[in-house]
Amino acid sequence: MIPKIGITIGDVNGIGPELALKAVQQIDFSLSIPILISPESVLKFYSELLDLFPSIHLIKEVNDAIPNSLNLLQNDRTQSYVPEPGKLTVFGGQIAMQSIQLAVDLCNAKSIDAMVTLPISKEAVNKAGFNIPGHTEFLAEKTNTSDVLMMLVNGNLRVALATVHIPISSIVHELSVDRIIRKSTLLNESLKNDFAINSPRIALLGLNPHAGDGGVIGKEEQTIINPAIESLNQQGIKADGPFPADGFFGQKQYLNYDGVLAMYHDQGLAPFKALSFGKGINFSAGLPIIRTSPDHGTAFNIAGTGKADPSSFLQAYNLAVELAQLNSSK
């Protein structure tokens, strides 16, 4: 079976459309059938602006998709919209969410085998009336998933987050023994089921500088993280830590583990992005559908200039294909 991969257009005023037009020239069409969900006017605009003219096949429904082409599935309500590169607009947020909603519906109906999401602007999305902190939380809601894990992937480097899009001031209140056990368990299951690692080794980072220094710089390691690690080990999950985050990445200890659980967003993403050289992938573990994404944002500052690098998007697309193929063989 050749999997059908849905691609959401993201914010049409950002670099998403350019990434799609560039990447499709490098996709191996023998392995998948790409279906881009976007207004036709958006692709025409960027094709002419950037002088990129891949083969595009306009379809009315997924069953019309064909190999060896970028299939374009439109949303009628937005098909005449003209982008404004670099601008944050309500229309940009609306179109992005319409594309995502359709892709989720198609995944839930098993009409497509996976979805790859191009970058959205959370500000534009919220201005458009969608009160969501990010893709991950929205997809969890739309798939009736009670718990989901945000994971960044680049080869064997896999960094997951115990807390995601919340203020720094809320992290301590959100962390608990139960949360860390749940997120670590999701990470362990994903490493086994999605990445075919039979007996994963997981590293947990500390919350405080120097992992609390034995309680001198905070006690969360002693009261929350250590009890969670003990419980995980009792359940047969190989979990170590808590490690001081700076030394863990600086000394390349991540090479000894199949997955890393960071306690908060920037603790995990800052070192990951420094190490991944723009080729990382955002993967949502725990969902009943397959979703991947490039690990960068809309890059409004270079939108429409032709400078966007499709490397991360290609990595995300190829991982979606691999996971879809693995899923179909189960």
Descriptive report:
The chain contains eleven helices and twelve strands. It has two domains: 1-145 and 287-330, Isopropylmalate Dehydrogenase, CATH 3.40.718; 147-286, Isopropylmalate Dehydrogenase. It has helices at 16-23, 40-50, 90-108, 122-127, 135-142, 171-174, 177-193, 220-234, 245-250, 265-276, 311-328, and strands at 4-8, 33-37, 56-59, 70-73, 114-117, 149-154, 157-161, 201-205, 238-243, 259-262, 281-285, 291-294. The mean pLDDT is 92. The radius of gyration is 20 Å and the shape is globular. The longest helix is centred in the N-terminal third of the chain and has 19 residues, at 90-108. Helix content is 38%, strand content 17%. By secondary structure, the chain is α/β, with parallel strands linked by helices.
